[in-house]
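Here is one chain, start to finish.
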Amino acid sequence: MTHQNNYRISKVIFFSFLFIFLFLISSANAADRFWVASGSGDKIWWDNNNWSNQSGGTPGANPPSGSDKAYFDANSTLDVNVTTNVTVNKLIMRRGYTGTININIPSGQFNAKQGVVHSGGTIIVSDGELRSGKAYTLGAGGHGPTLTFTGNTSKFRLNHNFVMYNGSTFTAPGAGASRFILKGGFRLNGGTFYHNDGTLRMNPRYDGPGESALGAGITISGGPGPNKNFYNLTKGVNKNVTLYSDIEVENKLQVVGTGRLRANGYDITVGGNWDMQNSTN
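Its structure:
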């Protein structure tokens, strides 16, 4: 074996051990944090008195940060106000939680890097951006969870799928072309969807622009109907969106870029204009 080959093998081994070392450090620093606020009135996210390292445990833990999972369950159902930037590994709201997370972060964001499991309670975003790096599931195994965007400056950005289930309620951001951006699929398996006269912009992350590439999907269980339709729908970037059910767009459908909106044998009903900007459809 040559000296050059030995060098290459040593380099591979070094970076392999470095990766494992960094992974172990990251895992060691990660923690679970549970909302245990007590008393009355709304509470503040950043107060150590509101967090524990176990469900229903002793308060005093540091608030969850970028490597931590934040849990809300039946052991404290008080509301929480979030007024400055927050980043967590994952947000988990269990069905026993009946309180509200109020997000009001002007020009800021609440970021759940590994997604949101929203099975109980309410999230209200009145200002700032709610961002989810992985899937956002609303209502899976839950009890009436609600996600609501109010005002003119609230935003919702997902880098993965958005999925709704029976009993859930979602009021999308209102008017504005870039307030609700989805890079994965939209699946309405159940629940109530209020489009709020807003625009869903789908910018798929996966699959190329070829005619057969599936890209992101849209599924409306049972097809169009009241509280199941889009107001405006935009397909952006150079990747495809594929239908897995009939859909209805009450106002404007816009297809932008070289990717396609693939009907896949299903019907698209458009109540207003259909705009095909540089599209290959």
